[in-house]
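Q: My labmate handed me this sequence with no annotations at all. I'd like to see what the chain might look like in three dimensions before we decide whether it's worth expressing. Could you predict it?
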Amino acid sequence: MCLGIPGEILETYERDGLKMARVRFGGVTREVSLAFTPEARPGDYVIVHVGFALQVLNPQEAQEVLNLFQELQDAADETPP
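A: Here is what I predict for the chain of 81 residues:
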């Protein structure tokens, strides 16, 4: 199973003719291709899968998804081994 994780674009730039971004996922920052979402700008949230931003989200949608992931993590932490 694969998950598309929302992240916040911190900056955009071009590398080897491709539009790229530095995207923050919580405390982790990764380089992401914006080939499929060239309209994305710093401050936008994007759904990322295997290094590609696939969709731009509005901040409320992104926060809802992040909250759901946190709820899942909290539930997993409470479950005894």
